[in-house]
Design goal:
single chain; about 150 residues; alpha/beta; 5 helices
Length: about 150
C-alpha cells in the first residue's frame, strides 16, 4: 500500500506570517524571509515520526507555493531559501515541490492509495479532498501523524 504524506511549508511548518513586514519582504525578494522564521512544530519530534513512517514505506514530501508576485528575482530567492531551510530542517524529505502561487496542489498527487496533505489553507485542503486525498489542518500535525503511523485512518 503506497502512502504519501505531504506538507505545506508556510503557515504549516514554517512561521512566515509572524515575521515583521513579511508580505512586503517576500514580494520584494528580501533575503532571509524564508530562513529566519521560527518553526511551527517541534522539528525533532516531526523528524522522528516521519522517519518511522518512511521505514514503513511512506513517502514524505513538501508541496509549497512561491509568493504571489511577478518579481522573478523574488521568486528565485524564495525557491533557494525554501530549499535551504528544508535541507537543514528536514533532510529526510523524499521530494520538494515548489509551485507557482495558486497552483492546484492536488494536480501533484501521485498515483497511490492514500495522498495525505497537511496545509493551513482551507481551500487547498478542500480541493485536495475533492480530488480523493485526505487533508489535515496544521493544528495537530504530530498527533495526526501518529494516527497515520498506526493506520487509524484507512
Amino acid at each position: 500500500m503506497t502512502i504519501n504524506v505531504n506538507f505545506d511549508m508556510d503557515g504549516t511548518l514554517y512561521d512566515l506570517y509572524s515575521l515583521e513586514n513579511w508580505l512586503e519582504g517576500i514580494v520584494n525578494g528580501v533575503k532571509g524571509y524564508y530562513t529566519n522564521g521560527a518553526t511551527l512544530v517541534n522539528m525533532w519530534k516531526l523528524s522522528r515520526v516521519c522517519r518511522r513512517l518512511q521505514k514503513k514505506g511512506i513517502k514524505i514530501n513538501i508541496i509549497t507555493w512561491t509568493q504571489n508576485t511577478d518579481n522573478v528575482n523574488a521568486i528565485e530567492q524564495a525557491r533557494k531559501e525554501k530549499i535551504a531551510w528544508l535541507r537543514k530542517k528536514m533532510p529526510y524529505v523524499d521530494n520538494i515541490i515548489i509551485l507557482p502561487y495558486g497552483t492546484q496542489k492536488s494536480d501533484y498527487m501521485e498515483d497511490c492509495v492514500n495522498n495525505i496533505l497537511f496545509d493551513d489553507n482551507v481551500e487547498v485542503r478542500k480541493d485536495w479532498e475533492e480530488m480523493g486525498g485526505i487533508a489535515f489542518s496544521q493544528t495537530q500535525i504530530l498527533n495526526d501523524l501518529k494516527t497515520i503511523e498506526y493506520r487509524r485512518i484507512w
